[in-house]
Design goal:
Layout (H helix, E strand, L loop, with lengths): L4 E6 L7 H14 L4 E6 L5 H9 L4 E3 L6 H8 L4 E5 L16 H8 L3 E6 L6 H11 L6 E9 L2 H11 L6 E6 L8 E2 L2 E2 L8 H15 L2 H6 L2 E2 L16 E5 L4 E3 L2 H9 L3 E5 L12 E4 L1 E2 L5 H6 L1 H10 L4 E5 L1 H6 L2 E3 L5 E3 L5 E5 L6 E9 L7 E8 L2 E6 L1 E8 L4 E9 L2 E4 L2 E5 L1
Parallel strand pairs: 1-4, 1-5, 2-3, 2-4, 5-6, 6-7, 11-13, 11-14, 14-16, 16-25, 17-19
Antiparallel strand pairs: 1-10, 8-9, 12-15, 17-18, 19-22, 20-21, 20-23, 21-26, 23-24, 24-25
């Protein structure tokens, strides 16, 4: 069965279990023969890979802070029904007013919200919680509730009784299950490709969803998406051939960027620094973010990759984001305090032995007046910059417009920064 409806899976807070519930729903609907696809609200490289594994289709990011409504609607268009997973709490977004929240995205697309509530430590108070979320914004529709981490059938009955006067249907009550716990890492979840028995985990989540969620009721909530199309702005890199690093150390690439480049007839060439691949010949070379600090010893010894990148810097434009930026630097110090020489094309030394969280949306303006590109981006890392010598790449501001000073470096045809670009401003 195909369709063109959608809904948003959201929660009152982070840690409510909405990612696991979303994965279970995607796989359960897929197993039932329903054509389904997914999206993730906001900046996130980790969850979309899990979504893709569960649904069998690529997952796009829809960012109500960094993307126009037209951009969002165009990316959301498709023949299959769309399950969107929100980020953080339903109304949580960029300060000061929570712009870019899952609630904002729901209103842009005209979709109802299914609220996943972690009911582990509550009974009748669930009614007050759901009432507050349902009535906080009259322009938003809470179409149903999925209770998560329910302790027993008696607990489930108590929660359903408390919620009955609200008129908001409880479409599922999922019991607490140790089999659905997942490991974490300093940037959030372990990546999909590193998760042991990922298929087993997703199928277990689907089995539980099939037993405890009314999938027919959920499908009945799917609402036609407001689509009016839109013209994308030019791709970020305008070369006709691009080499992109991609492996366990470099994997943070947004699907909408790849789609942009393909739409502009850019030929994409993929290579693996971890496999010591030589950099393919291309007009532009992109080193995305990821976890190079976990593989710093290997990267520093992969001379074929390093030497070919140095040669390429003479005739190609090279750009590194976050982990790619650190790799283009001189030295990366890992969490154990061991210094690893990197490519050395930028005067940058970074350290994970001295951890500091850098988190938030960024507005970037090019320092070079001859290249006045400006972007909307996000920053999320724990690396500390010990030294950064050279010409800055961007002038940066946060979501409130506060000046953050210079960000990134540029040396000849090589550039990079810690910010992950989402879209052009």
């Amino acid at each position: 069965m195909t369709g063109s409806g959608g809904l948003i899976i959201a929660a009152p807070t982070s840690g409510s279990g909405k990612t696991t519930v979303t994965l279970g729903l995607l796989r359960a609907l897929r197993r039932a023969g329903h054509e389904i696809r997914s999206a993730k609200s906001g900046p996130d490289y980790i969850d979309p890979a899990f979504h893709a594994a569960a649904s069998g289709k690529a997952c796009v990011n829809l960012d109500a802070w960094a993307m126009t409504a037209e951009r969002i609607k165009t990316l959301a268009a498709g023949s299959a029904d769309l399950i969107v997973e929100g980020a953080m709490g339903l109304f949580d977004g960029a300060p000061p007013v929570g712009k870019g929240s899952a609630a904002d995205l729901a209103k842009v697309l005209g979709l109802p919200v299914v609220l996943v509530v972690n009911a582990a430590s509550m009974s009748h108070s669930v009614a007050a919680l759901v009432h507050g979320f349902a009535n906080y914004d009259p322009a938003l529709t809470i179409g149903g509730v999925i209770l998560n981490n329910v302790g027993s059938e008696r607990h489930a009955d108590m929660l359903r009784t408390a919620l009955k006067p609200s008129g908001i249907p409880v479409i599922g009550a999922i019991p607490k299950s140790a089999s659905l716990a997942r490991p974490s890492r300093h940037l959030g979840l372990v990546q999909a490709g590193e998760t042991p028995d990922l298929e087993g985990f997703i199928n277990t989540a689907a089995d539980i969803v099939e037993r405890h969620v009314d999938l027919a009721q959920l499908r009945a909530m799917l609402t036609p998406i407001k689509i009016n199309g839109g013209v994308f702005k030019p791709p970020y890199i305008k070369a006709k051939t691009m080499a992109i690093a991609y492996d366990a150390a470099f994997s943070f690439v947004y699907p909408h960027q790849i789609a942009d480049w393909k739409a502009a007839d850019v030929t994409l060439k993929w290579f693996s620094p971890l496999a010591n691949d030589p950099v393919p010949e291309a007009e532009s070379i992109f080193l995305p973010g990821g976890y190079p600090e976990l593989y710093a010893a290997t990267i520093s010894q992969n001379s074929t990759f390093i030497d070919s990148l140095k040669v390429a810097s003479q005739y190609s434009d090279i750009y590194g984001e976050c982990g790619g930026y650190m790799t283009l630097g001189e030295t990366l110090i890992d969490a154990d305090g061991i210094a690893h020489p990197m490519v050395g094309l930028l005067g940058l030394t970074t350290s994970f032995a001295q951890r500091k969280l850098h988190l938030g949306y960024r507005v970037l303006n090019g320092v070079d007046p001859s290249k006045p590109d400006n972007y909307l981006a996000h920053e999320f890392h724990y690396a500390t910059t010990l030294s950064a010598e050279g010409k800055p790449l961007f002038n940066a501001k946060d979501a409130l417009g506060n000046d953050l000073g210079a960000m990134g470096l540029v040396e000849g045809r090589v550039a990079g920064s810690f910010a992950h670009i989402i879209d052009m401003n």
